[in-house]
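REVIEWER CHECKLIST
Item 1: Sequence provided? yes
Item 2: Single chain? yes
Item 3: Sequence as submitted:
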Amino acid sequence: QRINRPSDDPTGIVNTLRYKSTINESETYLDNISEARNFLNTTDSALGNVTDILHRASELTVEGINGTNSEEARNTIAVEIRQLQEQIGIIANTTFGSKYIFGGTNVTQAPLQEGLWVGNDLEMNLEIGAGTTVPINSSMRETIYSEDSANPGIYQLLNKLATDLETGDTTGM
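Item 4: Structure as written out by the authors:
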């Protein structure tokens, strides 16, 4: 308040501008921290849904390998497993705001499209302090959609379970 013109106190003006800049920078970091927290909460919720689906798929698998099931019963279980697979696809394409949370740095495009993974495994980082960044996304390609046939992702595994039930081949389950 004692400075009306820059010539009143040139050092004071510089300090005031520096303080304002520091405050603005700190507010930006706080906004980034809040965004990271919300992004991670969305991720946590989505992964909780994946856990629920895996529990249900496990129950259905145990029920499906029961040798006393009729073809109709196996097909009914297969239909539910295919619905679980669809839910995994929806979860894979979960968004926070307008960003796909599991697409790596490709946040503008759904990572799972028409049964194929188009996301990447790169980390998306937010700066939460001067020179301090944190990753805010989780790479889910290998978990949800793995191209390794020896270790399929959840999406492919549910498809295989449903197909095995439909064909009556429950020996590999």
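Item 5: Key structural point noted by reviewer: The chain has four helices and six strands.
Item 6: Recommendation: ____
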